[in-house]
## 1
Amino acid sequence: MMRFLALACFAVAVHAAVPTTMQAVAIDAPGDVDALKPRSLPVPAIGANEVLMAVHSAGVAVWDLQIRQSMAYIGNPKYPYTLGSDGSGIVVAVGASVSRFKASDSVYGYCWDNPKGGFYAEYVVASADCLSKLPRGMSLEAAGALGASGLTALSGIDRALGIKRGETLIIHGASGAVGTLALQIAKVRGARVLATASGEEGVALVRRLGADRVIEGRSGDITSAAREFAPKGVDAVLALAGGVALEKCLDALRPGGRVAWPNGVEPVPQTRAGMKFVPYDALFGDQKEQFAQLNAVIEARPFEVPIAATFSLAEAPAAHRRVAAGRVLGKVLLKVR
């Protein structure tokens, strides 16, 4: 009841007159965390197939740090550049061609390099195609961390690996933003999962989320754990981190096994004869359909989106430092409202 009242109050507040300017965190040039500056920017104008959203929460991802440092992955940046590829909020207005959303809808989204600015802001204008209504039972705060990580996890489990009921899977890096969601999706699909996690707290988190076997990724004996878990070899590995520990996970693959990793994981897995290696991106095909699939799998069982730490919008530099420090259990979030 209290969460419903808070959401109702938030919705009423954002439907007051939309200001002409908003608070945001942007950069004027690539740089260190000090390049992240609070700015007063115009609220973007809304186009025919776009949605104006009052941002509640915004995800902070490792690629945000890379973009801030060097504008990696961004082809033609326009400054001031507002970071943030995913987040959640309340719809304030919709364009003339939008029929899937209406004012007051609770939504979340993944909008890569949005031409009208990212989610580190009080308002976002984005294409309706990169937004979705919240899954049933999901809070706005949790949904702020769901878009990018959830779609990446779903693409890895369903498209890149094609996990089927009864198969065995190693998720390497299961305590991170993508891994915690991929683990839960894999369990919905009926897989048996051996998860590697970071530290004692990461091991406890991943075990609570449903892993059949958990091993600490840096100090644990992955080889022995995998042999006990699947004596004939595992069917697949989802690689969310690289390095020596990942190669030990690959040693556990059966002949003909599959390996997938999101583009950006470094170092990339070393290919091996007789095995299928698949790099992939979060998005493929119709993004609206991907969101529908993600919402369906989330609603299929009790589902958790772990939040490692929450910062205010003005604390974006501190949020970047937290991500850079590593061992993030789940995702770091900016609470905009």
## 2
Amino acid sequence: MNVSPEQLIEFISNHWMMSAALFVVTILLIQDIIDSATRKHKTVSPSEAVVIMNDDQTIVVDVREPAEFAEGHIEGARNIPLGKLDERAGELEGHKNKPIVVNCQSGTRSLAAGKKLTKLGFTQVYEMKGGIFAWKDQNLPMTKKRSK
């Protein structure tokens, strides 16, 4: 099906809101692809995170708020809310070259935390895709005991 430039312009002018939305979505998708390609930390599934956590040197950093953390978290995880990560990064200083798995509720905050940690010089940062929601979906163990 051949579409002439005049027909395309007519379509865009008749459906300008839909055309604008398509343009915005396309830009956002391109931005996401570029961001994924240039990201310095890795994204892992909960099952891949478990494999990484089997290394005794790995620490898990849960960047949710304390109330969310108290409702249930990965055994041994450290709760450092995303908003306090810059000021509390010193607590992780001894792990600059060791594996760090970052998680949150749904995977959004862990992306930001992964970026922050790599900017601070941490070399083995793993962002857990899907967060605690994905962890629970895979029926992986959680605890409500307060951890470090």
